[in-house]
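Can't paste images in this forum, so I'm doing it all in text. The chain is below; anyone willing to post the predicted structure tokens underneath?
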Amino acid sequence: MNIVKKVKRENELWSIMRHGYSRGMAISWRKAVMRDNRNNAKRYGRSTLDDIHRRGYLSQSIKTYDLLNDRSDKYVTDFEYMFLSPYNNNFSKWIGDIITTNRILKRQSEHCRKVYFSIFQRRGGQIILSKGEDYDRPCTVQDVIDLLISKGRVELRPAFWESKSARYELSYEKEMIFINGQTGRDDQARLRRLINGLQSNYVVAECVDTQFAFSPKLSGRHYIMFWLSNDAGEEPQILDYELNVKAAGRSWANCSVEEDGSFALGDEKFFVPGWQAVCTELLQTARELDLLDYFTVSIALDDKGGFTFLHFSAKPYRKKSRISQKHNDYLRSKAADAKERMGEITMKMRWEDLKRRRHYSYLQKIGRKGIRPYMQQLWLDQMESDRQNTKTTTFAQKKWCWERGFLSFRIEQYGLTEENYKNFLSDYDYHWLNRINNIYQLWVNDKTTFRLVLDPFADYIPKYYFAITKRRGAPHISRMWDCDEDVQPNLKGILTMLERKGKLAMKPSSGTHGDGFYCLAYEDGKYTVNGEETTADQLWQIIAQRKSFYVITEYINMHPMLKAIYPKSVNTVRVMVINSHGYDPKIMQTYMRIGSSSTGFTDNVGYGGICVMVDSETGELHDPETIAEHRFHPCPVHPDTGTPIAGFLPNWQEIREKVLDICRYLGELEYLGFDIAITEEGFQVIEINIHQDLHKVATHSQEIKDFFAEKIRIKKSIYKLK
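Text version of the structure:
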């Protein structure tokens, strides 16, 4: 791009950005306008389009809102609609793919289509996992064929709702396999080639019949789309409806549905059977997805009075037919609110944005190809900390380590030399490998999703009472599955649960290392936070001031044996698991973290806690150590309590079995770090880490070394690195 075009582009972007909109928003709108001009200038004329664009619309809205004759500003514009994206927070992942959605909407399973197999890529090959009760065995294409023969009809479709990849209807009739209605010679071989050739995430799922009779006069294929909101009031709302129907001898038609379930097709009026019952269920769906602000769901009706979910989207489509007044008012209010919260964009803010973008480019330039900028920055920060704080090495030694991807205190920790350093996984290589798991790591990378996805293992997970998020700049409290039904999702409800339970834990939904942890307690009519007396108003201020998402859960009471070692923190066991094939997980390494007076209510080893190795087979504790100035020091007796750190972990065999069972259930994930709290009644899985603190211990087994060596080899081949 020459300098003249660059200046012209920047001027066009600035004309949008000076009103307070982001650069990304400006670029998106500019591209949309340019695309509209290319495709529709002949149809409407350039002057007409220029006028429409100045008003904030694209040509797609001209007919819908009669924009050539109606010059009012009563409708939400295409620009405003685009400005609101993303409409949801991080929890939009709940409706990103069919497997996750089915697990999140477990309570509405009767409306979810069955998923039989998950198909994805790992280590350059394909893995097929059963999504039924037999998820603990290897599967092949033959299993898919056997299922097709038994069911007669299934769908091979992309796992992700928004995927543009092809969908295939598979059917079996008269001992022949049909793919999208076509068959031929060697039909099994054709299907094998099709499945083996898939490159993205697919599932084999139940086929949904979209044929439906609305009346004796109208029948055909159909789907109904609902626009739902959780932030338009205290209760979820259905903002709009649209029926898409293809009757015999007609093309697809988009029909707005009225609140009473009526719709017009041509000059005739029809009704959706069982409309109120459908709407009631869709509102319940919204309640189950309470942390989403605004989304769409499409359904197909059946002749038994029920329906099946066909599609979800956390990026709702612009309605093709005229938007309802309620829907329009909601979006305009949301746009105005967002614009107000954005405030005026100053030159200082523009400069800071430019510096951030330049720094991002700098990180990409200096980092190894394939490293995430966040991890590259973390490496730079660790190098600087190493330079300033590691007193046991010279600068020359530091430089030698950094050039080989290590922090300098590893010299003593690992015994690094020029001859052996390649035998160790370097700090930089581990940063570079992030992320090891595939997209399904979303199941465990925040505690809220983790609880919902792992509901079949609820007996082994702490009870979750509340989720705290931000909605339109203010704290929003959602009641979770384990909360008492008579408790409301507000401060009063939190205080009620606290008074009933006596002690609760409040922690970041995506936190690490115990950062941001609060112990909430109630005793003798008094509230405390981390041991300090507080009031209900002060507790609310703590909640309201949190910038990230938080959860409030039950407080774990440790097993007496572990409490005797150190009682103030929940001393957790880290279990590292590698699940290479999805059905045969192996526990590779186990150690325990124990808190101290230096760590307070957490067990963070880096802040002064104690690391104790655990025999993965027997659960025996051995080699307890502390870390001071990056050096490991034996610690056979707890420094605060004087209790010997030895013995066997209670319930260890049950823990082993259940950890492996959970890994098989999460077969799409390959590398997991369980944090487990052992209680008098059993144990609780606090969280599952997807990029755990691997370097807490100095030595690793050959299997672990081989695993990471293979990961490095594969990633280097992808990026064509030596």
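The mean pLDDT is 91. Residues 3-83 form one domain.
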